[in-house]
Amino acid sequence: MAFLKFNKSELVNLEYSLKREILSASKTGAYCNTSIVTCNTRRYHGLLAVPVDNFGGGKYLLLSSLDESLVMNGRQFNLGIHCYGDVYEPRGHKYIVDFDADPEPKIVYKVGEILFSKTILMVPDSDQVMIRYDLLEAPMKTTLILKPFLAFRSVHSLTRQNPEADTACREIDGGVSFRLYEGFPDLNLQLSSKSAFRYMPYWYNGITYSDELRRGFECKEDLFVPGTFVTDLKPGDSIVFSASVRTENPKQLKRRFTDIVRKDGEIRDYHDLLVHDADLLKCNRNGHERINAGFSWLETGLLRETIESLPGLTLYAGDNGTEFEEILDNLVSEEQDRLLRRTTQVEAPLRLTDTIQQYIHYTGEEKRIWTKYGKLLKNIIDSYAPGKRREITMHPNGLLWAQVDRVALSWMNAYVDGYPVTERAGYQVETNAMWYNALCFALDMEKKYGARKSAFAARWSHVRDLVQANFQPVFWNAEHGYLADYVNNFGQNLDVRPNQLFAICLDYSPVEDEVKSAVISVINNELVTSRGIRTLSPRNPMYRGVYEGSQRDRDLAYHQGCAFPSLLGPYIDVCFKMIGKTFYKKAEYLTEGFYADINKHGVGAFSELYDGDPPHEAHGAISSACSTAALLRVDYLMNKYKYREDKK
């Protein structure tokens, strides 16, 4: 039995079903993403989007959708669904009677006496999607018609009918091949059984993506339909359709489909679901393994997102230190400039220390890991010396000052009208907390494993002591009882934000225990929700508790009240350390809501952010690497503390 299901009444209600998306991805970085009734509502939706090496590895949508029609006794029933303005045509969703989300999305249609199903499968090791059609019940032979809608454009853009498109059809074994524009790979459409392809080229104009319309973006495009596949099925027959960038062997499609499904592990509980989602977020293209920050529009190999999510997606998801190091080594080789010279997310290179510390805690291999990565961490510290980076500099008090006019120099980097919503110029609390943690860790490791007379230790020991001496006096506000979010030439900014969490959650904290307790108290009272940690207190007049409206409205809310699941990892970790096993029930409460919502937004996936206000609806990327990794970390911590409790 599937772990996630939907019934007929839910599926035929478009207000309900169009807000729920399914997602499958391959290790190559290709993906399939659409709504549970296969009506595309975003520009990013489609049956096959693939990275195109000719265009720098960006993702391009080749096959937008595939409409099915059943013909019996001369009557044709169209199972597809598209939006044109405010009209849906055809309305094939009305025939859907069942939907299983796992292990592969399976939709069952009932048309009179016909019972028909389709199962969508992303092939795990190639840029290929397969769809198996099964005629489960029918009083007689039935004709299946398949109509492909081709896009051949970036997932971030839309396409229009144009004379430049090469609409020529090339026959291949078991099907046909298309390449609308130069530089793209071929799109090979094939069927496992004998069929006829009727070449009838036609542009379908004005297809509307309702979610883009709602968000105020360009929302209409024209898609090219080259013709239709036609084949006959008897009751009990099945046929497999393949869309791939390479030519497949039609005779092997059925067996390959069955073999892949057989190897897919059953999803029995939420931990299995987390591990499954973690696997989707890791891709290995051309022998180069990286992390996708989120589906469907976030990029692959981003610096901060990879550093933040790496332990969760590798160690806590699968006890895979080899994978951890491979992804990290690839990131380091690609991001030398941002790690060691310049970046607008000034805290990201420093956060790598915490990632390495988590790796050491997990494996216990302190000496080996430091031997491999110690030089890198020390070089990162050296890069923050005065005069090394334009965007951030070390002041005589040892603290880091980040400032470039009209540039957001932290993870809170939304912009409106060309201006950062949260510029935060000056001493940032999380950046300086990570700075102190990096200094302390590197100096301690250098003392244990470095040279007796270490030039690094001589250079940075005094700076560490300066940071320790100055951090709390600069950031702590005794009157209000929490740490300033940042400090600039005008003094402390006292917006209550979660960035102060990093002053207490890292291995080396620059504040006293009394300050830690006060910080936890204010975070508990003003920022913690059942869907993550708010980015701003509701008491603040700038607070926006709902992530809706135009792009401007959403950008104003993004870091001004939205709750981020990614912050639960460090928050729950420090709470366990401070409170102990008695925090288990609270940790359970703080995570169970995500599982209750698992049939919303991205079905079976964990979203990037949630409304700060109840009922905390999901928004952003439907599958987020940072959210998934944080929940895996929390799952690991809960199991560890539960085990300690059971032993007692």
UniProtKB/TrEMBL annotation:
Domain Glycogen debranching enzyme bacterial and archaeal type N-terminal: 20-239
A Pfam family the protein falls into: GDE_N
GO molecular function, one term: 4-alpha-glucanotransferase activity
Superkingdom assignment: Bacteria
A Gene Ontology BP annotation from the UniProt entry: glycogen catabolic process
Start and end residues of each Glycogen debranching enzyme C-terminal domain: 282-633
Protein name: Glycogen debranching enzyme N-terminal domain-containing protein
Source organism per UniProt: Candidatus Cryptobacteroides excrementavium
